What we know:
alpha/beta; 7 helices; 24% helix; five-stranded parallel beta sheet; elongated; single chain; 312 residues
Amino acid sequence: xxxxxxxxxxxxxxxxxxxxxxxxxxxxxxxxxxxxxxxxxxxxxxxxxxxxxxxxxxxxxxxxxxxxxxxxxxxxxxxxxxxxxxxxxxxxxxxxxxxxxxxxxxxxxxxxxxxxxxxxxxxxxxxxxxxxxxxxxxxxxxxxxxxxxxxxxxxxxxxxxxxxxxxxxxxxxxxxxxxxxxxxxxxxxxxxxxxxxxxxxxxxxxxxxxxxxxxxxxxxxxxxxxxxxxxxxxxxxxxxxxxxxxxxxxxxxxxxxxxxxxxxxxxxxxxxxxxxxxxxxxxxxxxxxxxxxxxxxxxxxxxxxxxxxxxx
Length: 312
């Protein structure tokens, strides 16, 4: 069977784009498939302050644009708005099915990342797009001069709250535990901003008429509820891996959905590799995703070209 490409990469976040850059530089015909637009969740980060080489920080969208530009200059073919719907990995030539076409390649790199975790409370789905958001950068401007709640206690929630503090008239960070989980540097910045912090509080439901008007908070220590009148709710309570297609194709995953890899980014199926947030890597950072992608790309090259140093 003729290969359409040497390598197909699923996902155009930092891991997927980096994998594409490295495979293309190795002379491999490379296709990157992305169901949305390039960047993944990284593109939605207001400011990335811990990426080496950018001491002043860089926005997620700026970093993404640089990666996309470099990938295309290296000859990577990037298909945006093309979702992978199925994988057939039984043969030597891997088949990748999308909502637009079917492609084949002897090597596949899965870098499909993660998606936002939902709260699962009444009103969240009903008011999505009408006050409920999962992206401060995307929707923050709509809440200029208004009151918003950010739900979560990790890095993403803290960064979003700090970002929104420059736009909204009032920003309240609600976290269900007694202590924030964010990095110390972020907590320091958060405390120096005008963000209000409510600990031991959980959003019980989101209410309003045609749009968000208030949230009902549960004090999980006292068992009491209270209403908070706001115009927007930004949910930042973590992510879940985009591994459903991989699992359906027979790739082994953990109970919580992360793709199992070895130290060479190999999955349970020969010729298939994975990198970034969709894997079992314990550290979910752009830097680690890029490092994994480089290894995966190098392994894919070895799998196809069989250089003298490569061993299965």
